[in-house]
Amino acid sequence: MKKESYTYTYTLQYGEAFEQYYLTAFLMSRTKKAAVKAGLVVIGFGSLAIYGTLSQNVIFLIVALAALIEVCVLILMPRSKAKKAAKIVEEANKELELTIRNDGTIQFAGEESRQLAGDETACTYESVNCFVIRTDREHTYCLPRGVVPPEEKDDIRAYLKSIMRYEKA
Fold first, then answer.
1. Burial letters for 65-90: b for 16+ Cβ neighbours within 10 Å, e otherwise?
2. 28 φ/ψ angles, rounded to the nearest 5 degrees
3. pLDDT tens across the length of the chain (169 residues)
4. Could you tell me which of 99, 93, 35, 44 has the C-alpha nearest to residue 70?
5. Strand ranges (E), the chain
6. pLDDT of residue 147
7. Sheet holding 165-168, edge to edge
8. Which domain holds residue 39?
9. Cβ count within 10 A of residue 23
């Protein structure tokens, strides 16, 4: 990092909060989620096809329905969790002050600082609207890209990439 620390003050909007919670709803990478969904769809439709040809085997119908229900859960659950959490954040309408330090810590004003790479789930997701920084299973920070000056975006991105897993969302 070029500076010792970067401090940003902002109010989190509904869209940014939704994006934060949606990206971190499940501890699976984007490719793993897609593979699981595709596998469940194949199992579901394959079981339906077998049930269609061998209609006396009800077990294939049950397997197909279970797989299709699981796909729906994988698609709808993160969205509903994110909507609920984003609504709570929006209603709080709280001004946040986030500090990212050169020593590998991150901190909201008034809270204790946390290591950026706190455990094996630590990662950063960069989306169109924000940087979502997950330090461990329990703590996630959202830094809207709009509050980061253009000359600091590349520096923040490079620093986060050097410390933790980094994914484009």
1. eebbebbeebeeebeeebeebbeebb
2. -130, 145
3. 788 999 999 998 899 899 888 888 766 667 777 888 888 888 888 888 888 887 777 888 888 888 888 888 888 888 888 899 899 988 888 899 999 998 989 999 889 999 998 788 888 988 888 899 988 888 889 999 899 998 899 999 999 999 998 888 7
4. 44
5. 5-11, 95-101, 105-108, 114-115, 123-126, 130-134, 140-144, 165-168
6. 93
7. 140-144, 130-134, 123-126, 165-168
8. 5-168
9. 22
| Distances 155 to 30, 128, 158, 161, 162 between C-alpha atoms, Å | 25, 17, 5, 10, 11
Domains contained in the chain, number: 1
Token code pair at residue 39: 């596998």
Cβ contacts of 164 within 8 Å, gap of 6 or more = 116, 117, 122, 123, 124
- The gap between the terminal CA atoms of the chain, to the nearest Å, is 23
Structure tokens at 42: 């194949």
Residues 6+ apart with CB under 8 A from 36: 28, 74
One-letter identity of residue 47: S
pLDDT at 6 (0 to 100): 92
